[in-house]
Specification:
Blueprint: H1 2-8, H2 25-46, H3 53-61, H4 64-87, H5 94-119, H6 133-140, H7 150-153, H8 163-185, H9 193-216, H10 232-246, H11 253-267, H12 283-303, H13 309-314, H14 317-324, H15 326-344, H16 354-388
Length: 423
């Protein structure tokens, strides 16, 4: 994946100075697009649009928003380690890295989980196996997906998207070790970008192998399709972009964006599996790798610094504003969609208007997300501004802007089953 991208994306001399992308507004705008894709795919499921032939398959594949978020995470969070390796300086400190990750995700996440459990004590539109004290504990600890019978014991319809948060947290936990293996062990304590890219390609290969084992043997529980190995290729796409960025590579949107759309449309065909019938054992792996390629291509022109209309669009004020609260949109949109559908619109599941549900959901979600962001980031934003005047600010950083999954989830409301790649 990295090699093919490099062939179409020119590289500057290895010593070229490349600015840190941590505050790039275009990447923030891309998160807004990814979050909206997730909202649309969930609304399409809820209104029964996924049964509408190829168009329904396209709606379902808009779950690629999650892959975009994971690519962004791989790029922004792996970047400080890559820049340190390229400059021959000390890698980011683990304590600072951990503090930023905890401060970025936990406050809003904990509030959302507890509030959703409270809402579902009086709001009961259907079966809810996750609405128990045990379920609350598992969601609060990001462990709900680690079960052999997730659907029947831990699925909470107001928090079904949180499988991707569990994956994101797992990536946070292993990233320092992956950086050490790729940049220290594999590269023999020297900056060798070709070796790093080869190691990242091997990391991406874990995903199809994992999915093939899942779908051809009984060695893994069906929920293993939601675990980190099933999505490593998505993170690896962003990690490869981090290496290419440090080398001064460039990627033209005129090539990358049409190619991303083409790959997405192919994956939306039976090549990527069908929604309701038995699929070939290779279909989940094909779909996951297709998502990795398409999402990486969509992010590449922005990550690699190309200037043009694509960057201008993603840097537009509305998208950047929405991207700034995209994490909170992700957290609350599923419960807001359920309230919009059942309590506001009065539509039974698999009925109603797709545009109507999208509008109603966003009308509830965006204000709630803005309030949640304002409440949970007041102290964080103040400390970030104070840090900006410090000399420490020049070191490799993993700031709030680097949280991909501000992300999102494309876990269809009631269908995160084993033969899927977690969505």
């Amino acid at each position: 994946m990295a090699a093919s991208l490099g062939e179409r994306c020119g590289a500057a001399p290895a010593g070229s100075h490349v600015a840190t992308p941590a505050r790039d507004p275009a990447l923030t705008g891309m998160r807004a697009v990814a979050a909206l894709l997730v909202v649309v795919t969930h609304a399409a499921f809820a209104t029964g649009q996924l049964t509408h032939g190829y168009l329904g398959s396209v709606y379902a594949r808009l779950e690629i928003g999650v892959a975009i978020f994971f690519v962004l995470s791989g790029f922004l969070l792996f970047g400080p380690w890559v820049r340190a390796a390229a400059a021959g300086t000390a890698p980011p400190g683990l304590s600072r890295y951990s503090r930023h990750r905890v401060r970025r995700i936990l406050p809003a996440y904990l509030i959302t989980v507890v509030a959703t459990f409270e809402i579902y004590t009086v709001f009961t539109p259907g079966p809810n196996p996750g609405q128990t004290w045990y379920g609350l504990l598992r969601y609060l600890t990001f462990t709900q997906i680690y079960s052999s019978d997730y659907l029947s014991t831990l699925l909470h319809p107001g928090l079904s998207q949180m499988w991707s948060m569990a994956v994101e947290v797992a990536f946070y936990a292993v990233l320092p070790g992956l950086a050490w293996l790729l940049l220290r062990v594999l590269c023999r304590d020297r900056w060798q970008p070709a070796r790093a890219l080869a190691g990242i390609a091997a990391l991406a290969a874990v995903t199809p192998v994992w999915l093939m084992v899942l779908n051809t043997t009984g060695l893994l529980p069906n929920s293993a399709g939601m675990w980190l190995p099933a999505h490593l290729a998505w993170f690896a796409g962003g990690m490869a972009l981090a290496v290419l960025h440090t080398q001064g590579a460039r990627c033209r949107a005129a090539f990358a964006v049409p190619a991303a759309v083409a790959v997405f449309l192919v994956v939306s065909s039976p090549v990527g599996g069908t929604l309701f019938g038995p699929d070939p054992v290779w279909a989940p792996a094909t779909k996951s790798l297709g998502y990795a390629v398409a999402a990486t291509l969509a992010v590449a022109p922005l990550a690699l610094g190309e200037r043009g209309r694509y960057r201008a669009l993603m840097s537009s004020r509305p998208l950047v504003w929405l991207g700034g609260i995209s994490y909170e949109i992700f957290l609350v949109h599923v419960v807001m969609m359920a309230l919009a559908m059942y309590a506001v619109l009065g539509w039974p599941l698999f009925t109603g208007s797709l545009p109507g549900l999208i509008v109603a959901t966003l009308a509830l979600t965006i204000p709630a997300a803005w309030v949640l962001h304002a409440v949970t980031h007041r102290h964080h934003d103040a400390s970030s501004r104070n840090a900006g005047s410090s000399r420490v600010n020049a070191r490799p950083r993993c700031e709030a802007a680097s949280f991909s999954a501000g992300l999102s989830s494309a876990a269809v409301l009631a269908e995160p089953v084993g033969t899927n790649t977690g969505s």
